[in-house]
Design brief:
Keywords: Cell membrane, Membrane. This protein is α+β, with helices and mostly antiparallel strands and about 300 residues long. It has one domain (about 35-300): Neuraminidase. The protein has helices spanning about 1-30, 35-45, 50-55; strands at about 60-70, 80-85, 90-95, 100-105, 110-115, 120-125, 130-135, 140-145, 155, 160-165, 175-180, 185-190, 195-200, 215, 225-230, 235-240, 245-250, 255-260, 275-280, 285-290, 295-300. The strands form five sheets. A five-stranded mixed beta sheet has the order 2-3-4-5-9, with no helix packed on it. The longest helix has about 30 residues, at about 1-30.
Length: about 300
C-alpha cells in the first residue's frame, strides 16, 4: 500500500510552492490596489500636527451622520454629485434613465429633469454663477447651461457643449467633475486606462473653454476615479474611488494628505458603500456621497477640532 504513504510527502513538497504562489498573488493584488501607498500615507498621518490637520479637510476626523435612500430612483442608477451654494441643494444625474435630480441635504427629492439626447451622464457640477455642467461619459462631452425654474426637460442639442476628446475611451472616460472658483478651472477625473486628473480653463459664460491639460502624475492610492470635489475653504481636492472603496484628500500640490475607507464598520458605516459614484462638499465642511443605485450618505467632522482653512 505505497500510495497512502506518498501523499503526505507529496503534500509537503507542494506546500512551499503553494505558499510562494499565494504570497506572489497577494503582492500583485496589493500592488494593484495600492496597499503600499495607503500604508505609507497611514504612517505619515500619525506625524501630522494639529495645525496642519485643521488647515485641510482631514478625513480621519469624519463620521457618518446620515444614511438614507433617494426615493424613486431605484431603477435609475445615480452617478455624480454636486453641492449648489446658490440654492443650498444637491444635484445628481442618473445613467439608466438620463435625468438631472435636485434634492435636499436630508435626501428629499425636489425635482427630476429629463435629459434628452444624453447617452451616459456621469458627473454634474455647479459652477457658482448659476450654471450647471454635466459630463456625458459615452459621448465624451461637457454640457453647460442655466437651469431655469419649472424646467422639466433639457435637450442636449440646445445646450452649449464641448468635446473632451478621448474618443476611444468607451465607458472608461471622464467620470468626475469639480469647479475651482479660485482658478476658474474645471477639474476632470478620467476613470482609468489611463487614470488621471485634467484641468480645463473655463473663462466666462460667453467664452470658449480652453485646452484640456493633464495634471502632473501623483500616486493617487486608488484603482479608479469615480468622482472629485473641491473643498471651498482649503482648496483641497476629494477623490472618490468605487473599486478601492476609498475617499482621498489631495493637498494644493496634488499630493495625498489623508484618506478613509468606505467599508462597513469604519467611520460610522455599518454596511459600507458598495458602489460609490459621487462626492460633494459644502462650505461648512460636510461631505456628501452618493452610491448606486440610490443610496445617500452624509459625513461630518466630529466636534472638538475647529476648521481653520481659508481659500488659497
Amino acid at each position: 500500500m505505497p500510495a497512502p504513504a506518498q501523499r503526505p510527502s507529496r503534500f509537503r513538497r507542494l506546500l512551499p510552492a503553494a505558499l510562494l504562489l499565494g504570497a506572489l498573488a497577494l503582492l500583485i493584488v496589493g500592488y494593484r490596489l495600492h496597499w503600499d501607498d495607503q500604508l505609507r500615507l497611514l504612517w505619515q498621518e500619525q506625524s501630522v500636527d494639529e495645525q496642519t490637520r485643521a488647515a485641510g479637510i482631514w478625513l480621519p476626523d469624519y463620521r457618518l451622520v446620515l444614511e438614507t435612500t433617494l426615493a424613486g430612483l431605484e431603477e435609475d442608477e445615480t452617478s455624480g454629485l454636486t453641492w449648489n451654494p446658490l440654492t443650498g441643494t444637491l444635484f445628481t444625474v442618473t445613467g439608466q434613465n438620463p435625468q438631472l435630480v435636485e434634492f435636499t441635504p436630508g435626501g428629499v427629492i425636489l425635482r427630476r429633469i429629463r435629459l434628452d439626447g444624453f447617452s451616459d451622464p456621469e458627473a454634474v457640477e455647479a459652477l457658482g454663477d448659476g450654471r450647471l455642467a454635466i459630463v456625458d461619459e459615452r459621448r465624451h462631452l461637457l454640457a453647460v447651461f442655466h437651469l431655469q425654474p419649472g424646467v422639466e426637460h433639457l435637450d442636449l442639442a440646445e445646450l452649449t457643449h464641448y468635446n473632451l476628446g478621448f474618443a476611444d475611451a468607451g465607458n472608461k472616460g471622464f467620470e468626475g467633475l469639480a469647479w475651482n472658483p479660485q482658478t476658474r478651472r474645471l477639474l476632470l477625473a478620467k476613470e482609468r486606462d489611463p487614470q488621471g486628473l485634467f484641468s480645463l480653463p473655463f473663462p466666462g459664460e460667453d467664452g470658449a473653454a480652453g485646452l484640456l491639460e493633464p495634471l502632473p502624475e501623483q500616486p493617487l492610492l486608488v484603482r479608479d476615479l469615480s468622482s472629485v470635489a473641491i473643498d471651498p475653504r482649503s482648496g483641497h481636492t476629494l477623490l472618490l474611488s468605487d473599486e478601492s472603496r476609498l475617499l482621498v484628500e489631495l493637498d494644493l500640490e496634488g499630493k495625498p494628505r489623508s484618506f478613509i475607507s468606505l467599508f462597513g464598520g469604519l467611520h460610522g458605516l455599518v454596511r459600507g458603500i458598495a458602489q460609490a459614484e459621487g462626492v460633494a462638499m459644502d462650505a461648512e465642511g460636510n461631505i456628501y456621497v452618493i452610491g448606486e443605485p440610490n443610496r445617500f450618505y452624509v459625513f461630518s467632522r466630529k466636534p472638538g477640532r475647529p476648521r481653520t482653512a481659508t481659500p488659497p
